[in-house]
Amino acid sequence: MLSGPSGVGKGTLASRVLSACSDVVPSVSCTTREPREGEVDGVDYHFVDDAAFDRLIAEDALLEWAEVHGERYGTLESEVDRAIGRGLSPLLEIDVQGALKVRERRPDAFLIFIEPPSTEELRKRLEGRGTETPDRIELRLANAEREMSCADRYDARVLNDDIDRAAEELIELVRG
């Protein structure tokens, strides 16, 4: 399972792992946020409204869920169990709150924290996306400080200062 601050490169690194490891499959999270340009429902996320998300919580259908940056995100437990039942390893790309909740429910989960080289670099990456307002970037950076303070609660940490090197290190961890 991968987590780390917004803008650290989790999505890019997850794609590299999925390309290199045939026994690893993505776990598609649910979210109440609106799709970004190019995102596909059921592929990038399961986009749901607040009422549907409330039902998933009430039915205890989520392995974890959290409110992040004003939106809710969660992992369907049925997706994780389905992958494991097929002999595959589900790759969860989730926020820090969610990762720590998974650790509570599934102590055998292997948690990998993706670290940015610096807060300044994280800011540049978030600004470079062109998808966030300045206020949202500040919120994400404030959350990043809190999230980075939790890195020592993970099984492994990968510094994403160079995408190719970080991907190689991550793939070795996943294969190990």
Structure description:
It is a single chain. The protein has 176 residues and is of the alpha/beta class. The longest helix has 15 residues, at 134-148. It is built from seven helices and nine strands. The chain has a single domain, classed as Rossmann fold (3-Layer(aba) Sandwich). The protein starts with a strand and ends with a helix. The mean pLDDT is 92.
CATH class reads Alpha Beta
CATH architectural category: 3-Layer(aba) Sandwich
Quickly count the helices.
Answer: 7
What profile does the largest beta sheet have? 4 strands, mixed
CATH topology: Rossmann fold
Structural class: alpha/beta
User: If you compute it from the alpha carbons, what radius of gyration comes out, rounded to the nearest whole angstrom?
Assistant: 16 Å
What is the succession of H and E elements?
A: EHEEEHEEHEHEHHEH
Keywords:
single chain, 176 residues, alpha/beta, Rossmann fold, 4-stranded mixed β-sheet, 3-stranded parallel β-sheet, 7 helices, 19% strand, globular
